[in-house]
């Protein structure tokens, strides 16, 4: 009887420790949904650790994190805005971790507490069937031929659009948004809301399209082309970070390792993002092939001011 009891207690003990080793992790991620699901499924298959996903726009992810401040639910956050990571690090919200798979990630795409999953760039997405000339620079979209034919993601909702507005602001393009507003540019929700009317032919171009989304649509046969502005653009690295409040630090670290593995980075490349690792082949132009605007180091600290100035351009 005692032997049976000891055996039962041992089995129960092993079961509990086994469950703890494979507790679910929760990842909050700003699109793309297909990539998030693929990475989660592959990671679970490889590790046995289930991933609970919350996928939304950067704005909605940040709002949920704020609402849960008293009782954090997320273990890992993946944002479309690099400023999210720098801000969270400054607030002491992140768990320091350097993945061994980050060795070939350039220094400007990693720190002691966050690292890029992949990198997008902001561009003009243009419909060749729109009856307009293909634009080559941002200012082209303020020309009469594009009157009321341009959309833009709302920088208050899209982390990547905010990065572009901040970059143009830092580069001194103060007159660009009033001119676009006067030309009838529509600021339409997050990235998908801005791109859909252009894909449907109701509008001609997206100012500040997330390039990989448009490239993915083109690969599926949609009437869309991508132009990288000659005066320069910004890149939008997608930072991954482990929250200090996590109760599953070891498993969260394994997820970061997986995303930065050969397999994980190839999944990133499949959706036309630039892989964070320089030794994984990209299926699109990389940072070295693009002209970039000067970086704005304090963009997140000035977020309120930048968004206010943007809104005023549109009479809001």
SSE order and pairing:
Blueprint: H1 2-21, E1 25-30, H2 33-47, E2 51-56, H3 58-67, E3 76-78, H4 82-90, E4 114-126, E5 150-152, H5 159-170, H6 176-182, E6 186-187, H7 191-199, E7 205-210, H8 211-219, E8 225-227, E9 235-242, H9 249-259, H10 262-270, E10 274-275, H11 303-313
Parallel strand pairs: 1-2, 1-3, 5-6, 5-7
Antiparallel strand pairs: 3-9, 4-7, 4-8, 4-9, 4-10
Signal peptide: 1-23
InterPro entries: Ferric-bd (IPR026045)
Organism: Thioclava dalianensis
Major sheet size, sense and barrel closure? 10 strands, mixed
Q: What does the average pLDDT come to?
A: 90
What structural category do the secondary elements indicate? alpha/beta
Please report the distance between the alpha carbons of the first and last residues.
78 Å
Shape: globular
Low-confidence stretches: 1-20
Written as H for each helix and E for each strand, in order along the chain, the element string is HEHEHEHEEHHEHEHEEHHEH
